[in-house]
Amino acid sequence: MTVKIFTEEKFQEEIVLRYTDIIGEKLGGKVIAFSDEWFAKAENLIKPKAPIRDASRFTYAGAWYDGWETRRHNTEEADWVIIKMGVSSASLIGAEVDTAFFNGNQAPYVSIEATVLIDDSLYEDPSIKWDTIIEKTECGPSQRHFFVRDSITEEKYTHVRIKMYPDGGIARFRLYGNVHPIIPNDLSTLLDTASAIQGGVCVSFSDQHFGSADNLLLPGRGHDMSDGWETKRSRTPGHVDWALIKLGFPTVIKQIVIDTAHFRGNFPQI
């Protein structure tokens, strides 16, 4: 397995617009275990918003960071976090590891592994086999790193483990792949096949200046305007914005729901 380092533009084009971030908090991803989170919590890794920095802010443990940061002098090989995917299972292709604002205390190296667990507590079972998704790779300070496999995994996974060697900090972690939904035996069952949980992907859009188009595919209702799709204003007569959604699987469409929750003075007129 070969790991390729992508530019942000190439990663957006070849990964983000073709696959789903299957560990994101908004999709239901959840941290179930970690080795240490002395300075900053592991759950920050999968927060949806971009990390921020407040150099004047301190906690009992030390300087505040918007990410996951462990204590110094780790005596083990690596610190780690285990995350349960927000989907039933997924095949995996690539990841973004962002060390934003971690400079001098960033994770020097990272690796990513995955497995299948029928119960979250089984991560402690020494017989569980963890497959390498992204091999140990160097990280730099305060930057976004885009790692891509040469091919998508054949195995379908439910849980992922990110390691950093030996310790340090990571601001955000995104992991992309193909969702494998659970299709009911009763084919008359109504399913939202545009939902990211069912494998829906936003593959193209006209604009997403204020809000990402893939927010359209998240489960539930948005919690505020940041949790939706919003384009910049156009003064061109007849202008139309659009998003192209690839459904999770072939669908006979019986119902369409358009939810403009929280968009009060900027909702689409038509």
TrEMBL record:
GO terms for biological process: allantoin catabolic process. It holds the Pfam family Allantoicase. GO terms for molecular function: allantoicase activity. Gene3D superfamilies: Galactose-binding domain-like. It comes from the Eukaryota. Residues 28-179, 199-269 form the Allantoicase domain. InterPro entries: Allantoicase, Allantoicase_dom, Galactose-bd-like_sf. Belongs to the allantoicase family. This is Unnamed protein product. It comes from Candida boidinii.
